[in-house]
């Protein structure tokens, strides 16, 4: 390991976005000021009559949820994007805008109100993966849709208003900013080297073995070299696959296992139901050759020092660039010890 990276401030390049993160490892040597208290997870009931996601309950628009047994998907009653909005464009000098259409869905991971992915078995999570595959295919086949964003906001600290285990799928006509950056970076690398950016990165990470948390036959869970959030992690398929449809059933299970291992370890870090935003970045569904894409899932957890102390992206991070104290290598070691 390059010890300079553990001792002195430096910038690390995010090869997927082309952006830099400032790392200040000397600051992590400050005495531990946070509390290490054990925060008990609220004891949630398996069914909540006031939850609009629980089976059999009525949603705000009057629709009644079926008595679903594993995964349940419906179109978001308060969608940020709609498929029937009008087309328009604003080109008024420097005032530029364009209409955007899309379809937003909600996916309940389990009928059990009390569970999170960390409490579910890999077999149960595999059903979620199958549902993601089905939605990516169906939405992607829609002429209106050129990109499908699958994500989850977990925990009140992430702005998640309902503890029922669920995620979202927002699909739209154009590529969102983060996807657009990754598309460009991967395409440029693929053109120049004739190989997958993330595939080559993974090979280097496996050889160094400094930031690996877990691996099975098909997946690697690691802290990316350029991680911003203290315990940011990424799940990457070993095979060069551009989207999740390329997973066979066995690989879908191994993917579910990787999610299970990571989320379970997360819950042990501060002895709390670990909040995060997670999302899958994969090839656009624009009908183009997207062979340069190597799909992956990222987890961005906000917690820093305890179940109650979170990292804020303020000050320098708003005006300059993201910054972290604890190095990716230290974070990987901490989580690896909990797997
Ligand atoms: Zn519920």
- Name the ligand types: zinc ion
- Note the main sheet: 9 strands, antiparallel
Counted by DSSP, the helix tally is: 7
The poorly predicted ranges are: none
User: Can you give the mean pLDDT?
Assistant: 94
Total number of strands: 14
Q: Trace the largest sheet across and list its strands.
A: 3-6-8-7-12-13-11-10-9
Radius of gyration: 20 Å
> What string gives the helices and strands in order?
HEEEEEEHEEHHEEEHEEHEH
Q: Give the overall shape.
A: globular
Strand content: 15-25%
Q: What distance lies between the first and last C-alpha atoms, to the nearest angstrom?
A: 22 Å
Share of helix among residues?
25-40%
Structural class: alpha+beta
Label this structure with key terms.
339 residues, alpha+beta, 9-stranded antiparallel β-sheet, 3-stranded mixed β-sheet, 7 helices, 14 strands, 26% helix, binds zinc ion
Verbal overview:
The chain is α+β, with helices and mostly antiparallel strands. The chain is 26% helix and 21% strand. The chain has 7 helices and 14 strands. The protein has helices at 4-7, 122-141, 177-193, 197-208, 249-269, 316-319, 328-336; strands at 10-14, 19-23, 72-75, 89-92, 95-98, 102-108, 147-154, 166-172, 212-215, 219-222, 233-237, 276-281, 296-300, 323-324. The strands form 3 sheets. Strands 3-6-8-7-12-13-11-10-9 form a 9-stranded antiparallel sheet, sandwiched between helices. A 3-stranded mixed sheet has the order 1-2-14, with no helix packed on it. The chain has a two-stranded antiparallel ribbon with strand order 4-5. A hairpin with a 4-residue loop joins strand 1 (10-14) and strand 2 (19-23). Helix 2 (122-141) crosses helix 5 (249-269). It binds zinc ion.
